[in-house]
Automatic annotation (TrEMBL):
Keywords: Golgi apparatus, Membrane, Repeat
InterPro entries referenced in this protein's UniProt entry, alphabetically: GRASP55_65 (IPR007583), GRASP_PDZ (IPR024958), PDZ_sf (IPR036034)
Domain of life the protein comes from: Eukaryota
Species of provenance: Hyaloscypha variabilis (strain UAMH 11265 / GT02V1 / F)
Domain PDZ GRASP-type residue range list: 26-110, 115-204
Family matches, as PROSITE patterns: PDZ_GRASP
Protein's name according to its UniProt entry: PDZ GRASP-type domain-containing protein
GO BP, one annotated term: Golgi organization
Compositionally biased tracts (Pro residues): 313-322
Pfam families per record: GRASP55_65
Start and end residues of each stretch annotated as Disordered: 260-348
Main localization category: Golgi
One GO cellular component term: Golgi membrane
Amino acid sequence: MFNALNRFISRLDSDAPTHHSNQGGWGFQVLRNKSPELAIEPWFDFIVGINGRMIDDSDPALFSQEVRNCAGSTVTLGLWSAKGQRTRTIHIPVPPNNPSLGLTLQWTSVSTVSNIWHILDVPANSPADLAGLLPYSDYILGTPEGVLHGESGLGELVEDHIGRPLRLYVYNNEYDVTREVTIHPSRDWGGEGALGCVLGYGALHRLPAPLSEPVAAPGETLFETENARFSNEEARPLSADASQFFVPAAVAAPGDFLVPAQLTSGPPPKSTPAKKKDKKHGHSPNKAFMDDYFTEGEKKSRELDHAPSARNTPPPPPPKQGGPPKAGGPPKAAETAEKKDADDSGVD
């Protein structure tokens, strides 16, 4: 009996559909919207779900049949937007007589909208400046001339249009509008590049959410305005006695220092002041302490580095025998003996 039950459960698990994530997945990209009342943007929006289920089949007939099944009621669509890479859900009423949404769709990968180029710097009198491209808020989405594949797609297209007009689809984040721009690529404008602008490409230059959209979770703040604390910590008053943490410098004695809370029971031990050679210049009360501190640190550093000192430095080796005598110095013993022998021999 248990074996039959296990086989039944295994059959159910194998028949269960697998759901894929929206990020990096596939969906129906909206190419045209004939219904102005629908809050669906062509090119930017992808239909990735319908009636609470993820779309994992590229057959458009199944999608159309699901919409017709909702005739006279509403259909729920899950949309993924390239603006900010967000997912939202909308409810659209389906008319009973003509069960259609008025959308032109294409099954494609969500990653196709990642082939965009962010306009960064635009020098004056460059082709990009003359075409009206705005720095840091314009994004090149594509061109009616063809499909751009990869980061080098735009550069190859520009090379083919040197000296000829080139049409580009440009989206502006500040105004949340898309426009067609005509630019004339040239290498004779006096600067670098045929477009005359700095482009950004990659994950750091994706389309951001429009500025008109509200921020996530409005009204939330990271810290409280009066007194910041953890969520599981009791509120503590701001009028705490500050003397338990630090001793102000204006009240402390000349030889005292800032006392942490752990050392408030007694003053720190005073170090023996070093001898001062010159008392003409004014020194701070902490001068002796700092001198001892640096002297002790230098001593430890020498011990760790095995640096030679004046006390333990061995004497220099003796000079080699038979070397040249120093000028003006006393004669060596061998020279004195030879001179004495010559005098005793009586040889003139």
